[in-house]
Amino acid sequence: IRLQARIGRLAGRKIVITAGGTREALDPVRYLTNRSSGKMGFALAQAAVELGADVVLVTTNSRYKIYGVREVLVSSTRDMHAAVLHEFDNADVFIGAAAVSDYRPVEAAKDKIKKKSGENLTIKLMQNPDILAEVGRHKTMKQLVVGFAAETQNVLEYARKKLIQKNADMLVANDVSTTNSGFDSENNRVTILSRDEDPEIISLSPKIAIARSIMDKIAKKLA
Ligand code: CTP
Ligand code: CA
């Protein structure tokens, strides 16, 4: 084991980041999920280690290894919820970049669901826990909480509401109505909302550049 003292503006800081889209089982072979690729979460993890942070990435997929990042693989929202609450306890920052399924099937079938010819299938869904809102409720004065919001309309208005309702310190609003930004793209166009600052607009840029801007803001807030 090689022990190395980290240097950088986030040295000694623990940052918990979520990435990817959660998966909700319907039966042993099928699940409900969304179009999130996890790229933004991985870019944030990369930007955080560049500043010397101890990074825990709670993710639904293992895209690639980032030196210095501890990966916690999860699948469902409830798995992610449990992992995040556990890791956040002694963390300085939480960043919720995952696309969390708002609903899950009321129960996952034990056996593969068989089709019945000519009949429709109705699946009843129930609401999942809101990880970001719960972290927001639990945070202490010293902990920073950052959320994301993917919207297709009224982007700033909806994002501002999420910032307040989830008790976050920062919320990154993402307009996913346009092509070549957002889901599964290399680039993104965001507005960063903070409680105590004017919104900052970042025009279409690679996700790693956006991640570095977000991490720079976080480092300033922690200083
Ligand atoms: N989020 C979460 N847990 C959920 C739903 C969302 O932690 N069950 C987090 C996301 O990771 C993101 C933020 O909350 O950081 C906003 O997610 P979003 O889906 O935009 O907002 P919702 O509150 O789910 O509202 P809606 O989908 O209706 O717009
Ligand atoms: Ca949602």
From TrEMBL:
Keywords linked to the UniProt accession: Decarboxylase, Flavoprotein, FMN, Ligase, Lyase, Magnesium, Metal-binding, Multifunctional enzyme
Pathway: Cofactor biosynthesis; coenzyme A biosynthesis; CoA from (R)-pantothenate: step 2/5; Cofactor biosynthesis; coenzyme A biosynthesis; CoA from (R)-pantothenate: step 3/5
Region called Phosphopantothenate--cysteine ligase, residue ranges: 15-223
Positions of the DNA/pantothenate metabolism flavoprotein C-terminal domain: 10-220
GO MF: FMN binding; metal ion binding; phosphopantothenate--cysteine ligase activity; phosphopantothenoylcysteine decarboxylase activity
One of the record's GO cellular component terms: phosphopantothenoylcysteine decarboxylase complex
The record's free-text note on cofactor binding: Binds 1 FMN per subunit.
EC number of this enzyme: 4.1.1.36, 6.3.2.5
GO biological process: coenzyme A biosynthetic process; pantothenate catabolic process
Binding site for CTP: D102, K112, P129, D130, I131, L132, F148, K162, K166
Catalytic activity: N-[(R)-4-phosphopantothenoyl]-L-cysteine + H(+) = (R)-4'-phosphopantetheine + CO2; (R)-4'-phosphopantothenate + L-cysteine + CTP = N-[(R)-4-phosphopantothenoyl]-L-cysteine + CMP + diphosphate + H(+)
Co-factor requirement: FMN; Mg(2+)
Functional description taken from the UniProt entry: Catalyzes two sequential steps in the biosynthesis of coenzyme A. In the first step cysteine is conjugated to 4'-phosphopantothenate to form 4-phosphopantothenoylcysteine. In the second step the latter compound is decarboxylated to form 4'-phosphopantotheine. Catalyzes two steps in the biosynthesis of coenzyme A. In the first step cysteine is conjugated to 4'-phosphopantothenate to form 4-phosphopantothenoylcysteine, in the latter compound is decarboxylated to form 4'-phosphopantotheine.
Similarity section: In the C-terminal section; belongs to the PPC synthetase family.
Protein name as catalogued: Coenzyme A biosynthesis bifunctional protein CoaBC
Protein's organism: Leuconostoc litchii
Species lineage: Bacteria, Bacillati, Bacillota, Bacilli, Lactobacillales
Designated gene of the protein: coaBC
Shown part of the complete sequence: 179 to 401 of 401
